Amino acid sequence: MKIIVAGKGGAGKTTVSGTLARVLSRAGEEVIAVDADVNPMLGISLGVGMDETERLAGIRESLQQGHIEHAHDVEALVATFGTTAPDGVQLVVGSRMDGPDSGCACCGVNPDQLLNELDGEGRVVIGDLEAGIGIVTRMDTGNIDLVLVVTNATSKSIEVARRAADSAAGRGAEVLVIANRIGTDDDLEEIRAALGEHEIIVVPEDDAIRRADEEGLAPLDGPRDGPGMVALLGLGERLALRAAA
Amino acid sequence: MSTVDVEPLWIAVAGKGGAGKSTVSGTLARALGRLGHDVVAMDSDTMPGMCRSLGIAEPEVTRLMEAVERVEERKWRLKPGYGPVRAVQRCSIPAPDGVRLLQLGKADAAENLKPVIGAVGAFHKIAGRLGDSRTARRWTIVGDLPAGPRHLSAGFASYTRGALVVVEPTSQSVLAARRCARFTREHLGRPAWYVANKLRDEEARRRLARMLGEEPVAWIPYDLEVAAAERAGLAPIDAAAGSAAVGVIESLAAELSERRLDGL
Fold first, then answer.
1. How confident is the model at residue A135 (pLDDT cuts 50, 70, 90)?
2. Does residue A66 have a pLDDT over 60?
3. Which percentage of chain B shows pLDDT scores above 70?
4. Residue B100: phi, psi to the nearest 5?
5. Which of A2-11, A103-112, A232-241, B48-57 has the highest mean pLDDT?
6. A131 to chain B nearest CA, in Å?
7. Average pLDDT, chain A
8. In this predicted model, which residue has the larger pLDDT, B170 or A103?
9. Do B150 and A133 touch (CB under 8 A)?
10. Domain ranges of chain B
11. Does B105 touch chain A (CB under 8 A)?
12. Which of A39, A155, A217 sits opposite B179 (nearest CB)?
């Protein structure tokens, strides 16, 4: 199963991706988490810590400077740059931070390719995308099982989510909208008004998740009885059932 | 346009998505306009943002497309006679306080940047050539960069003489901010200053200073009035005038204008 997670910066893509990746891995799936963000952060929500997250991003920079090379295909890139995160999730940083092109300096593989070419058969590939709608509009949707579009209740976040969801759904992809950090019914109404034609999963505001993000810890390693985490765990179970089927 | 004699500033605003770049850059542009700067706001984010924070409607079409012509299937160039000055004069959108907004062009749901790809190239050239023009050198530039550090090393912010890096007290925002500051200093050789945003309490302030490893030049509190303005898509400087957060950004504008920041 292949899942991509899109939305405006700050909406909660990384928190959702990292938490779901670990829940799916705990459910017995082989999980590859691809950090396709030009500003890679997925390590934090997976629980490898701020320093290791920065070191992984740094590997990509030294690669661009020609210090490391690897075989020219996506599986080799995963093997070379993958790190084992908690619960056995394989984390791969797929994007470079500097330069106009996000592709790998030695083999040219870019995050789009990595996500398109990694085989989702018999395992779960979950891609945390860069902020905005770029990769969503370029992805081969026939190759993606599910597009998760994460949004908050602000007008800008909803606008980006609407574009991402319309683009993906318009090309035949299955879209699930995640209304994240929802505090009030008004919040949800704003999201429903713009994205009502898609199924919406509500993830309420959750102090424990917010604190984990502040401290650079995986939300899953904190208290799991808050309303936001309960909603994410529920979504994770649903996806695990689907992946197993 | 400017009646007061002020020295121009060329500032880019960077940071993680959601940190508050548009809020800071839009409010700062308006505040500098009020201080007598002839402000050109440069919005190189392809997502909606700076328009709303400046207090104007998102245009239907990218006006910068008027400045370009297609020479080959995938190649565009600035029309003859179009440099930064003419592009700003003809293709910018007027905003309050004398601010003019030049937009790179917004992504489209169906085709992403394809409809505005000519404008992207034009924006890149204009940003790079601003320093060549005597007229442009009298403008104050306030740039709103896309999320993350990449545009600081990709030529979209080559005009930058200093970057304000907006950061909120979360681990992800801090990592992004440290990368933005590093790229500004290493790739552009320019100073970078942190602007702390959405601070809820004293503990958040201490945590942020510890994670950043250096002191921000401004501390913007979490502000319900600004949050409400943002939610409604209104300019904070209008809809949340007099709020604590807008006050801090106005003070920052004054500090920049008087060149009181290190490295300016």
1. confident
2. no
3. 94
4. -115, 135
5. A232-241
6. 7
7. 87
8. B170
9. no
10. 10-257
11. no
12. A39
**CA B174 to each of CA A104, B74, B149, B212: distance values in angstroms, whole numbers, following the listed order:** 25, 38, 12, 6
Residue from the list A10, A57, A163 with its beta carbon closest to the beta carbon of B109: A163
Domain span holding position A167? 2-244
- The Cα of B186 is separated from the nearest Cα of chain A by a number of Å equal to 11
Predicted local distance difference test score (pLDDT) of residue B112: 62
Let me know if domain B10-257 sits in CATH 3.40.710.10: no
Pairs of CB atoms within 8 A across A/B:
134
Specify the number of domains making up chain A.
1
| Global pTM value | 0.80
- The H or E element spanning position B220 is strand B218-221
A120-144 average pLDDT score:
85
The whole-angstrom separation of Cα A245 and Cα A241 is 6
Q: Average of pLDDT values for A113-120?
A: 84
Report B:185-244 residues touching A (Cβ under 8 A).
187, 204, 207, 211, 230-233
The answer to whether B43 and B194 are in contact (CB under 8 A) is no
Residue B2 predicted with pLDDT over 50 = no
| Cβ-proximal residues to B131 (8 Å cutoff; 6+ apart), any chain | B137, B159
Task: Work out whether the CA dihedral B241, B247, B250, B254 comes out positive or negative.
Answer: positive
Q: What angle do CA B242, B143, B204 make, to 5 degrees?
A: 55
**Residue range B102-111, pLDDT digits in tens:** 988 776 655 6
A37 chain-B contacts, CB cut-off 8 A = 148
Q: Do B112 and A134 touch (CB under 8 A)?
A: yes
Interface confidence, given as ipTM, is 0.71
B23 touches chain A (CB under 8 A): no
Q: Where are the beta strands (DSSP E) in chain A?
A: 2-7, 31-36, 83-84, 90-93, 124-129, 146-151, 175-182, 199-204
| A57 contacts on B by Cβ (under 8 Å) | 179
**Residue A143's CATH number:** 3.40.50.300
Q: Which residue in A39, A44, A156 is closest to B171 by CB distance? A: A44
Put simply, whether B128 touches A (Cβ < 8 Å) is: no
Q: Are A117 and A26 in contact (CB under 8 A)?
A: no
B171/A50 Cβ within 8 A: yes
